[in-house]
Structures are given as C-alpha cells and as structure tokens.
Amino acid sequence: MSRIWLILVLISSISGVLFVTGCKNTPSTAPSATYTPNGMTTPTPVSSSEVMNPSTPTSVSNTSEPPVKNEQKVSSLASKNLEITLTSTKEGFRIDHDETFGFYVMQTLPTPRGDAVLHVVRRMDQSTANDAWIRKDLVLIKPETKEVQIYTLMNGYTTDSYSTDSITQVLGFIDQEHIIYAAIHGDQDTPTTYNIEKMNVYSGGKEVLFNNQPDNVSPDFYMPGWLNDKKEKLVINSFKDGTTWVFDLLNHNVIKLEEKFKNTWPRFALFPSPDGNLFWYHGKLYNLQGQLIYAPNSLGRIELGLYWSPDSRYTVRHFANDDKPEDFLSGGENDILAPQSLTINDPTGKIVQQAETNDPKVHLELVGWIPEQQAAVIQYYEIDRSRPEDDQKTKVNYKLMSLLTGVQKTLMPTKLEDLTSSTRARVRTYSCCTAPEIPFFVDTNNSTFWRSEDRAIYLGQFTSGEHVWNVVDHRRAMAKIYVFSPLTKKIRTLEDKKTISDIKLFLKSWAFDTGNLTYQKLEMK
User: Fold this and answer.
1) pLDDT in tens, 422-436
2) DSSP letter string over 207-265?
3) Nearest alpha carbon to residue 352 among 334, 376, 331, 322
4) Pairing assessment for the beta strands 440-443 and 393-402 based on DSSP bridges
5) What string of DSSP letters covers 366-380?
6) Is the pTM of this model over 0.85?
7) Which of 2-6, 119-123, 184-188 is predicted with the least confidence, judged by mean pLDDT?
8) Which residue, 75, 181, 81, 82, is CA-closest to 134?
9) Cβ-based burial of 155 (10 A; exposed 0-12, middle 13-18, buried ≥19)
10) Which helix (H) or strand (E) holds 492?
11) What is the 8-class DSSP label of residue 344?
12) Biased-composition ranges for Low complexity (predicted)?
C-alpha cells in the first residue's frame, strides 16, 4: 500500500515567527486549522499542512516513522520535508525557503474557489545529470490570511529527470477541491512508474485513479496533457513516439488511440481546443476518440501557425504564398515566415471566413479575438529587415473582422480616454495560443482602438472591473504595474517593482512575482 504523505507542524514563538515543518504519516486526510498574522512584521516561516495560531506555540512530532529497508537506496530527500518562510513586506509578503535540495516552482495556479493559490515545488537529490530522486510538494497559500498548507505530491527515483518532469505535472482541477496529476513512483531497485492520482488541496487526501499509467516512455518524453471542459477526459501524448492515452475519469478506463500523433522537436504538433474536446494535428482536426473530423486542402500554400479562439468556436489557420527572403521576419536563431492569407474554421473544420493580401509586400495575421462579439482583430504590415529584430513590422494597421459576415472594418488609433466603449480584445504578443496577451481595447461603435506602446503584458481584472497590466524595463530591471478604469477612462500607476520576472495576477488583487517569489496586494479604488 502506498503511503500518503501528510504534514504535521512545529511552531516556534521566537520573535513572533511561525515555523512549520512536514513529517510522514499514513492517514488519508490532515487536520486543518487557521492562522491569522495579526499585523505581523517579522518573518513568518512556514512549511506544512497544518497551520496554527502562533500565540499558542505547539510542538508536534511523529513517532510512527517507517523502517528504512536499505539506507543506500533511499535519499534523505524523502525525510527532508519542505520548509518555507513567509516574510512580511511593505506590500505583502515574500516566500523564503531552504535550498538544501534546490527549490523550483514548477507550476502556479489559483483554486476554483478563488480563496488560495497553489505552487508546485520541485526538489531533487541528483547523482548524475539525469539520475535523481525527485520530490514535488504542493504549497497552498491563502494570501489574505497567510494561511499555508503543504502536502507531498510525490517522491520517487528516475534515470531520466527530463522525461519525468515532462509528465509529473498538475493537470488541472476536476472539481472545486481536487486536482488531478501524474505522480512518479519507484526507487533505485525498481523501475520508474507513473500513476494518475487526485488530491484534495484543502485536506491532502489522495486517491490513485490509474495505476502504472501512462507508460514510462523514456528516453522519450511527453507533451503537456489536458482535461476536457466536463472534466471527464484526460489526454496525454508522448512526444516522439506519438502514443496518445485518453483516460476516462468517469468510467475509470483508458484507451490508446490507434493513430500515432508524433511531435517534432522543438514544436508540439497537437493543438487542443480550449474546451479540450478536439485537437488539430498537421492541419487535420480530430476528436478524443482519434476520429478524423476534417482534413482541409491547403491549396498549395505553405501552412503556418494556427490557434483557437478562447471559446473554442473558431480556429485560425495561417498560410504563406511564397518563401522568398523578403517574406521572413528575423527571429534570432530561426527566421519567421510571415503569412499572407488565413482561414477561419468552425469546430467541424468548415471554413467560415477567409482573408488574404493582394500586395505581395503586405502580410497579415489574426492577432486576437473578441469572443463576446464573434469578432477578430487582424494585423496588416510590411517587413523591413534592416530594422532591429523586434521592430521589423512597418506600416502596421489593424482591422476588425466579423466572424459572422467576414466584413472587415479598419480600426483607427485613439487615446484611451477617448474610447466611448472599451471592449478588451484578446490580442497576443505574437500569433500563438500560449503567447502572453497585451492591453488592447476596441471601441466597436466608432471603429477605434488603443494599445500600449510599451512592451506591456496584460495581467487580468480587479473585482471592480479595472484592467491591470505591467511593463518590464529590462535595462533598469524594473517593472511598473498599470491600472485602467473603464468607468473613468483613466490610467493610474502603482509603484515600481525591482524585478524582470513574470508577474501574475491571482485572486483579483494579488500580484505574484515568479522570480522573487513575492506576493503584493494591489491597491483597488
């Protein structure tokens, strides 16, 4: 029987500091408690699933340690429970941590309840470049109260850490409380295997859903898995071999699709829809049974990138008519062939709209969507390769295309405060479903738009409806956060942050710096 790792607590009242450490135990759930910092300004060390009030110091130990069969075959990482410290700052708090086995935040995601943020932390005891004990812990933080819970997701040995990291991910929430993830198992005497498991993020209770699945494909690895919108299907694909597993979470069975969906380094070849029910592969559309839905004809054109609308109702497919040197944007290691035509496809694969340029010097890309209006933003431009790599698009203009009629209206730039309405367009920094979005607002009534001239990344919205984005000045290693109110049409700025890392907005009001591991409470008005 596999042990479930839970957390016990050691609390010290020295200097108003809360220490939390983890221990092994076998119960399937852990007790919960509440900790309120009471305006604390001293460091707040934390590291486990049970969090208590520091006003009543408590020491908890576990005497039921399992015997070690072979000390030479067990890493001390197994008993080295994750310890972190929440150190209060002017704006919020910082996560400090022990560096004994390294500390890397693999994933960060909010809970569906909107009350906490999850961090998946990886630590490694590495003997060679590829051989290692890998332990991943789940850190749940409630920023408003500084409550912390830590649970061990997995601990096992691998001879291929790259392949293991590619599969041992949290794959999403299947309800308000449970995550589903792939966990490593095994030691130096037994082969590395993986399970599909679920965990209650509030109690630590675990359940194995699929044992020894998916197969260990090393030296191959995996592309990111995905859930469908009903949380009933989980899809995992091996990168080079192309084996695709579809796990039926309701009926508890798994199938391997007959066709091999192989990827070629360095790009993924499968493009799943946001609702997870369909995917494109080399220009063909498939469902989760591996059935071919649509195989369009590219008509001799060079097929380029595609991506889905956020509501899964449309896909844009880009094409180039030629590949002359003047048709490429300089892209560092790889030049980028610029498209000259595109098609909009519905979920059956049928082409519902299309656009192309008549001038061979002009290129176009669908750069964003307005799902609520069934519209898309198309960028037209020419190329000047004599300019810097990130500034080679010239004579740039934008058009708004109706996905119902195909009519395109030219969008004219204006000041943000002059927009009579400010619908946010889901415009990305480049045409890829994983690219970050930028602040881009459209007044559809007057065919005008505003976009930030800075290299801005859109973060999200406050509960008040205000839009938030940040601009990183890499030269000064500073980031500035901007807040725009659709009601007042005004932008205000928050203080500069000393960082060049990505900043994420969680729970409508907390900015998380992925590099410095800091939480900042953003001011709302």
Assistant:
1) 899 998 766 555 678
2) EEEETT-S---TTS-EEEEEE-TTS-EEEEEETTT--EEEEETTTTEEEE-SS----BT
3) 376
4) unpaired
5) EEEEEGGGTEEEEEE
6) no
7) 2-6
8) 75
9) buried
10) strand 490-493
11) E
12) 28-37, 53-67
Q: How far apart are the first and last CA of the chain?
A: 53
Length reported for the chain: 525
Structure tokens at 462: 């406050």
CA distance 471 to 398: 22
**Strand partners of residue 210:** 196
Tokens of 102: 């390294």
Question: Measuring CA to CA, how many Å separate 64 from each of 19, 373, 400?
Answer: 21, 60, 65
DSSP string for 200-218: ETTT--EEEEETT-S---T
Give the integer Cα–Cα distance in Å for 441 and 462: 17
Q: What number is the average pLDDT over the span 75-81?
A: 83
454 — pLDDT class (breaks 50, 70, 90): confident
* C-alpha dist (Å) from residue 206 to 5, 105, 142, 183, 244: 9, 21, 21, 11, 25
> Among candidates 298, 330, 334, 337, which has minimal Cα distance to 317?
298
Segment (H or E) for 399: strand 393-402
